[in-house]
Amino acid sequence: MNFDNIQKLLPDFQAALWQTLTMVGVSAAFSIMAGGLLGIWLFTSGKGQIFEHAPINRSLSWIVSFMRAFPFVILMIVLMPLTRMIVGTSFGPLAASVSLSIAASFYFARLVEQNLKEVPRGVVEAAQAMGASPFTIIFKVLLSEARSGLVLSITILMIAILGESAAAGLIGGGGIGDLGIRYGHQRYMPDVMMAVVLILTALVIIIQTAGNWLSAKLNKR
């Protein structure tokens, strides 16, 4: 196999890698904050929880399920007007990050809800018996007890965003995946496609390894 194409496209690889890292970084940061708050609200409004409210819980659960099932490619197209309002353009890695952030937020919200459900009920009841405020229960009991699982969920989230970023090329988002499609597939350059696969695989391994290590460090059980 001829690797001349890779050498010629080294500047493109560097630019594409930076675009991918930008999309993953921006989208992960936003979705962890927004999705985390949504997931906490979803859990605490559930039956028997500190802010139990059945109508709100059902509505939130339906919205999260609907958005998770929404095809990402279609979502990118639908959100183009909103993307232009936020970043001033519908093209580029920052523009793609808007769609990625919104999709990932709902995905992460469900992960957070599942993590919080694994916290023993007795721990929360003990905190309530001692007069702990809802704020204390959420941030010093629930999130503290679930921290190891939350790190693994963040790891899963970042890998999912990395995978979805490949589709960002459809709206000119760029990135490693887009480079593989444009050169490796459409221009029949197998060496470029192989390099793209290896880079994406390496990124996944790095993210997963770091997540597993940090999760194990935080797991005090």
Describe the structure in your own words.
The protein is an all-alpha fold. Helices cover 79% and strands 0% of the residues. It contains eleven helices and no strands. α2 packs antiparallel against α3 (54-69), α2 packs across α10 and α10 packs antiparallel against α11 (190-218).
**Level-1 CATH class name:** Mainly Alpha
Separate helix tally: 11
Mean pLDDT: 89
Give the end-to-end Cα distance, rounded to a whole number of Å: 50 Å
Question: CATH topology, anyone?
Answer: MetI-like fold
Cα shape: elongated
The residue ranges in which pLDDT falls below 50 over 5 or more consecutive positions are: none
Short description:
This protein is mostly helical. Helices cover 79% and strands 0% of the residues.
What tags apply to this protein structure?
mainly alpha, MetI-like fold, 11 helices, elongated
Summarize the SSE layout with pairings:
Layout: H1 4-8, H2 10-44, H3 54-69, H4 72-78, H5 80-87, H6 93-117, H7 121-129, H8 134-145, H9 147-164, H10 176-185, H11 190-218
Helix pairs in contact: 2-3, 2-6, 2-9, 2-10, 3-6, 5-6, 6-9, 7-8, 9-11, 10-11
